[in-house]
Amino acid sequence: MRRILSLLVLIAGFITALSVQAATLWKIDHPRSRLGFVATWQESEFQGVFQKFHAQILFDEKNLEKSRFEVEVDVTSADTRSPDRDEAMARPEWFFYSRFPAAHFTTRSIRRLENNRYLAEGELLLKGITHPLALPFIWQQSGDTARMKGETVIQRTDFRIGEGEWSSGEMIGLDVKLTVELHLTR
Amino acid sequence: MPPETNRESWNGVAKGLHWLIALLVLALFVLGWTATSWPLSPTKLKLFFWHKSLGITVLGLVLLRILWRVAHQRPPLPPSMPRWECYAAEASHLLLYGLLLAMPLSGWVINAAANFPLKVFGLFTLPAIVAPDKALQSVAQTVHLTLFWLFASLLVLHIGAALRHHIVLRDNVLRSMLPTARRDKSP
Q1: Is the pLDDT assigned to residue B1 strictly greater than 50?
Q2: Residue A9 pLDDT more than 70?
Q3: For chain A, how many structural domains are there in total?
């Protein structure tokens, strides 16, 4: 009985070791990492950051098959350094913080474009609406540290961010650029 | 009939600036008041957009007006005016110029402290006059509103005094600033 148990533990250990080998799990250095966005207000750009987010970054340039990002963003942690604007973002016609406090991004596939440039394709769940999202990014790795940097543009109305009168994009632009810069260690 | 009816009036540039600024200030009062009470919507932002754009325009025009005023002689006040009235007129006009500068400047501070961009008429972006700062924003808002009330009271005095000169004293003070004024006689 004891022998069988230790065998099971050994097998479990092997499986764990194998899966870890399949794609490296990276740890985010949060103080140095940044998940932000750039939007336009009366044709002028303004920036914001999501101060709280968690992500499971499984990445191995030699094993893109098993590489995967899973990101959970605390939408309510958005900060545009403008209390008036940040307050407005909480409203139902914008992000509706009370009902949809979190956003999720999960990749379906990651492929190499050229050199250290990659494309992550997946789904973004925001304000209860799921839409495909393609995120081109650069992966720079040296030893046990890596830097991941990418940006993509989404249409805020795809996710009903800015409903009703706001959906025309006249005062607040429809295109929103998402920017991500992660510093990682393994 | 007062003897000072045959006086020079203000020159065309001074008159043009005076009435243009007067018109803009009236528009600014209406826009500012409407914008602050309007519920949050694109319309509210649009009202603020016009308020800010016109406010910056006034700032520019007032600077021009002051330069012009410094470089040119103003028509003399009626000799019949008591000395204290001349001083009061001088002081209230200085204060008006000061407020015409302080109103847009305090508005600019609010906008920058609130970290809102300022693209005048959608044409060019003005730099932020201060760094984003919630506390400073509320101070500037209080200043802007207080100055508004001071300005409004002073305008009542300004318009009242002009009408008094015209209707009661029957001198040329108001007429010297009217667009059509010549060296004509009072009726």
Answers
A1: no
A2: no
A3: 1
The pLDDT value recorded for residue A19 is: 54
What pairing do the DSSP bridges indicate for beta strands A175-185 and A34-41?
A: antiparallel
Q: What is the pLDDT of residue A180?
A: 98
**With left for phi above 0 and alpha for psi between -120 and 50, is residue B95 left, alpha or beta?**
alpha
Residue A11: partners with Cβ closer than 8 Å, 6 or more residues away: none
The range of the structural domain enclosing residue A143 comes to 23-185
Q: Does the residue A11 lie in any domain?
A: no
Mean pLDDT of chain B: 91
Does A85 contact B at CB distance below 8 Å? yes
Chain A contacts in chain B segment 134-163 (CB below 8 A): 134, 137
B131 and chain A in contact, CB less than 8 A: no
CATH number, position A153? 2.40.128.110
Task: Please state, for a pLDDT cut of 70, what percent of chain A lies above it.
Answer: 89
Considering the segment(s) B3-177 as one domain, its CATH architecture is Up-down Bundle (1.20)
Closest to A91 in 3D by CA, of A163, A173, A41, A38: A163
Q: Nearest by CB to A82, which of B119, B122, B132?
A: B132
Domain boundaries, chain B: 3-177
Q: Report yes or no on A138 lying in a domain.
A: yes
* A84: closest chain B residue by CA: B114
Which residues are A109's β-sheet partners? A121
Q: In terms of pLDDT, which residue wins out, B102 or A17?
A: B102
Query: Comparing A10-19, B53-62, B149-158, B159-168, which segment has the lowest mean pLDDT?
Result: A10-19
Task: Quote the CA–CA distance of A177 and B130 in Å, as a whole number.
Answer: 26
At residue A5, the pLDDT reads: 67
Nearest CA in chain A to B127: A44
Rounded to a whole number, what is the distance in Å from the CA of A31 to chain B's nearest CA? 22
B-interface mutation test, from A42, A84, A167, most B Cβ less than 10 A away: A42
